Here is the input.
Amino acid sequence: MNDRASNTHHVIGVDMGGTKILAALVDRSGKILAREKKRVEEHSVKAILGSVVEGVKAVCQQAGVKPDQVGGIGIGAPGTLDFERGAVLFAPNIHWRNVPLRALLEKEVGIKTFVDNDVNIGTLGEHTYGVGKGTQDAVGMFIGTGIGGGIILGGKLFYGFNKTAGEIGHMVLESGGPKCGCGNRGCLEALASRSAIARRIWRAIKKGKKTVVAGLVKKEQEIVSGVLAEAVRKRDRITIKSLEKAARYIGIAIGSLINVINPEMFILGGGVMEALGPMMLPLIRECARRNTFPQCFRGIKICAARLGDDAGVLGGAALAWERLKT
Amino acid sequence: MNDRASNTHHVIGVDMGGTKILAALVDRSGKILAREKKRVEEHSVKAILGSVVEGVKAVCQQAGVKPDQVGGIGIGAPGTLDFERGAVLFAPNIHWRNVPLRALLEKEVGIKTFVDNDVNIGTLGEHTYGVGKGTQDAVGMFIGTGIGGGIILGGKLFYGFNKTAGEIGHMVLESGGPKCGCGNRGCLEALASRSAIARRIWRAIKKGKKTVVAGLVKKEQEIVSGVLAEAVRKRDRITIKSLEKAARYIGIAIGSLINVINPEMFILGGGVMEALGPMMLPLIRECARRNTFPQCFRGIKICAARLGDDAGVLGGAALAWERLKT
Here is the structure.
């Protein structure tokens, strides 16, 4: 394995998701020199790892860089991790249990590998190369099917005692409120994720309320961000009301986090934000403001993520650069 | 003014409250060599500052130490602060506005002075010399008339962008819930502070419910921690129910903080905890556990503060030692 960390000019960032794998060869300034996308057809370790290896090799080939010239790989994985071993302990959406990802990948490609979870990596990408560039303390929130988060303090990812910090989706905002996937009630995720928004709209449809969504989907799971955006364009009242409700809860959560952590910036990404950010952000900001003291709120920025799909690969690259330094 | 920071053996910690002022001469190990307590009779700047100066002089005299042998004073003040100037911007409970505390005190006693807010100072005291000794990341929660908090990250007080981090009492746990003193609704403080507990009991009394508290007080404001403890000793159902409700909300807030920040320890102090900690702590812990994932909760300690009234003066001393180092 190579250990030319200090004089390398390239690292590779990998975003390992349940539907696709993205890999990119990145230089020190965050410039993407080559990129590759692989569809994930099945969730076995062999299939996904195979696609990651292909992605890594493809970006090297495209850029004319040999694997032994690459300083490291930073990879964002879903689920809970064992950070010591760089292993995926449990990732329900790809059905992985106890997979020693770092060891397997290092063996396959011979490049030093660093593993972190996908939301930490997304936050790090936006902080290092995106909208959060230059901030000391920032909180990333990714609003999609669920709600995940990452925390940057003093310019670095913050992990906490059990290395699980950032579970922003499971702040309780309404004790005794709607049931959350985690088994608890009233979590932010149960109130403001895409699934929560879809659930409210689906319930309205079942009650016979008039909404254009009824004509766009056949079941609740089909109410994805694109459908929501389409319904908003058609000024669908039920959809707009449900999104406004979600925005208010996100604002309340941000308000609480401003009161407690007081970070310089909130970076909002994920499918819902990408599709509906311009509509939701003003309301999110207003609710956050209303839930804080003026002296706490002053100057704090609540921004849309800027890197889109590149947040993962650039975050992976940022992780690799960061770890290679130390 | 002295600047023998590096070879001094003494600092003074001051806890400046609305009812009393505590001062203590403290050595590097956190040993209190002399202490003084002054009752606060009126809230003018002159009166309170006068008592602080008397306290500082008294502890020096008691220990036979000259003021110019003292390395610094660390003082915890109520209200919002201007950290740059060491000034109290607004402290409603002592009716102070824009008082340049550091400058005034340095002029009066000729000792370098460091000002922070009382809950940060209490948290720092418990972290440096009390139950939190040796932890890297800890959260202090002080439950009294209101609920205040302080955050230690990487062994140091964490301030955030506007230097207002730690406003744990204003996390929203029940959006649309009971009105809080801050103007918002459903804050932890509106659900679990001594005032919130008293309000619930008083409402029960007004409704004609049977409770021993009715015989102990004449108005809601008299339901202080001592009265609550007395009612619990008499197994008063209404009081116990209200305290259990508060404990559950505190547990939910801690659970959310475990999910988001994942600190190693929570340190619970303040009047309510001092009087009722043994009764409330098991329920607080249980609710915190139920509101987190097992892998997030593992090993995290939820403890009663240990220093009581000394947390403030020892925290002030810790602040002075810390700042003199740098």
Q: What stands out?
A: Chain A is about 40% helix and 20% strand.
